[in-house]
Automatic annotation (TrEMBL):
Chief location of this protein within or outside the cell: membrane
GO cellular component: plasma membrane
Xref: InterPro entries: GspF/PilC (IPR003004), T2SS_GspF/T4SS_PilC_CS (IPR001992), T2SS_GspF_dom (IPR018076), T2SS_GspF_sf (IPR042094)
Domain Type II secretion system protein GspF: 77-200, 282-403
Alphabetically ordered keywords of this record: Cell inner membrane, Cell membrane, Membrane, Transmembrane, Transmembrane helix, Transport
Keyword flag DNA repair: no
Signal peptide: none
Membrane topology type: Multi-pass membrane protein
Gene3D superfamilies per UniProt: Type II secretion system (T2SS), domain F
Name this polypeptide is given: Type IV pilus biogenesis protein C
Stretches that traverse the bilayer: 178-199, 384-405
Biological processes, Gene Ontology terms: protein secretion by the type II secretion system
Length: 411
């Protein structure tokens, strides 16, 4: 198993041209560890290779067709092949049918390449490992276990459910994060427009008064003058801050740890992220454990799929405790991250020998809770957006009209 993984990590895609036994010119793509190996595979198929070279790797997952292959595309592909295999369609025929029917040209080419490799005698899991951008280690390990057990259709069905649930959960989390960001962005845009275009009009009027302006009005005018003269500095600071933040998350484990702990402590949003992490943990463990993957290896996969460093570290500690002989529910309790209900359900699952079923129920419960929480957040933030905008716009209006009110009182 490990040897297969090491080999797969070195696989590249090669573009070749050659001649068939009848002298007909052929061309295509093939994966392999070297040009020499690809040439040898072509000769076995009765093709005399004339040119073999490494295929340039696409940027950002965009292939020759110019269309990006998304995680949603892979989830749909998984469901299609699961349905076909369950219906009794042979694997190669299923792959070819999905390839020919795919509207995304890049996806069609990807699946067609996998079909060619399987047709040439390559195990499906090994063929998938050649494309780690689209098929992660968990996906390939599950398919490998399905091939070994002869239950590939059932495994594909489980993987399809896992991918669909993961994509749905990801979509809900994005929706939850979108609203707070939208509040800030809309508030900044509206305030900037007022400061740059509206406040200067009032400033011209105030200059004719010849009287001292209120402190609040002077403060707003000062911000307006800065925005008019150095708006680019404001944009530059925002751009540099966003870039530095992203780089810190990529390069610094300490920054990533701080960020992930901070987002879990945010009001409302933090609660949603907690529930999402528990749902991901339960769904991954349920899928892998039911597929015959040992619990310790399943915990490895769950740690990788957690999506949060705090949960990843906690699951790694749970794995260490389980490896040393402790029950998983006790290890989860020691982490102080998982709710009592989850721990109790895991405990019942361990005692009754139905851990995968219990974990699936936990995943279903928490995915539904995330869904409800996101809907609740949407309802909560709609009046909040209006309130924030009202305070900003109202504050600017008061600052501009305050001198006029004072002038009226003097008269």
């Amino acid at each position: 198993m490990k040897k297969d993984k090491d080999t797969a990590d070195k696989l590249d895609t090669f573009v070749w041209t050659g001649l068939s036994a009848r002298g007909k010119k052929l061309e295509g793509e093939m994966t392999g560890t070297s040009i020499a190996l690809v040439k040898a595979q072509l000769r076995k198929q009765g093709i005399t290779p004339s040119k073999v070279k490494r295929k340039p790797k696409p940027l950002f997952g965009i292939g020759a067709g110019g269309q990006k292959i998304t995680a949603k595309d892979i989830a749909i592909f998984t469901r299609q092949i699961a349905t076909m295999l369950t219906a009794g369609v042979p694997l190669i025929q299923s792959l070819e049918m999905i390839s020919s029917g795919a509207k995304n040209k890049s996806l069609s080419k990807l699946i067609g390449g996998i079909a060619d490799e399987v047709k040439a005698g390559q195990p499906l899991a090994k063929s998938l490992r050649a494309y780690p951008r689209y098929f992660d280690e968990l996906y390939c390990d599950l398919i490998h276990s399905g091939e070994q057990s002869g239950a590939l259709d059932k495994i594909f069905d489980r993987v399809a459910v896992y991918k669909e649930k993961a994509e749905a959960l990801k979509s809900k989390i994005k929706k939850a994060m979108f609203y707070p960001i939208a509040v800030v962005v809309v508030a900044l845009i509206v305030t900037s427009i007022l400061l740059i275009f509206v406040v200067p009009q009032f400033q011209d009027i105030f200059s004719s008064f010849g009287a001292e302006l209120p402190a609040f009005t002077l403060f707003v005018i000062g911000i307006s003058e800065f925005m008019q003269e150095a708006w680019w500095v404001f944009l530059l600071v925002i751009g540099v801050s966003i870039y530095s933040y992203k780089e810190a998350l990529i390069r610094s484990p300490a920054a990533r740890h701080f960020n992930d702990r901070l987002v879990l402590q945010l009001p409302v949003v933090g609660m949603i992220l907690h529930k999402a992490a528990v749902a991901r943990y339960a769904r991954t463990l349920s899928t892998t454990f039911a597929a015959g993957v040992p619990l310790v290896d399943a915990l490895d996969s769950a740690a990788g799929a957690s999506g949060n460093v705090i949960y990843k570290n906690a699951i790694t500690e749970i794995k260490a405790e389980v490896s040393s002989g402790n029950q998983m529910n006790w290890a989860m309790r020691n982490s102080k991250l998982f709710p009592d209900m989850v721990i109790q359900m895991v405990s019942i699952g361990e005692e009754s020998g139905s851990l995968d079923g219990m974990l699936e129920k936990v995943a279903n419960i928490y995915e539904q809770e995330v869904d409800d929480a996101v809907d609740g957040l949407s309802s909560l933030l709609e009046p909040l957006i209006m309130s924030v905008l009202a305070v900003l716009v109202g504050g600017l209006i008061i600052a501009m009209y305050l001198p006029i009110f004072q002038l009226g009182s003097v008269v």
